[in-house]
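Technical note accompanying the year-one report. For the benefit of new consortium partners, we illustrate the data format agreed upon in the data management plan: each record pairs a sequence with a structure-token string. No post-processing was applied to the example shown here.
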Amino acid sequence: MAKDEEIVSSLMKENVEFRKMSELHSEYEHRLELLSKRHYLSDNEKLEKSNLKKKKLAAKDKMHEIIQSFKSEGAT
């Protein structure tokens, strides 16, 4: 069975949906980092931060789902 790093590397090259989810996850993470550095957040920024956390988690969940699917296809 391939190691997770190898699977991720392979999926980044071959799976458009995985690559897109990875890019979105990184974008959300970057924006969250910027918001976290601020000493004060407006109400809109607090809402944005909450929404970004949810979107980031959804992207990570989808990536995990794709990895699990890849592993199960390889096991059959």
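Partners are asked to follow this layout when depositing records. The chain has a mean pLDDT of 93.
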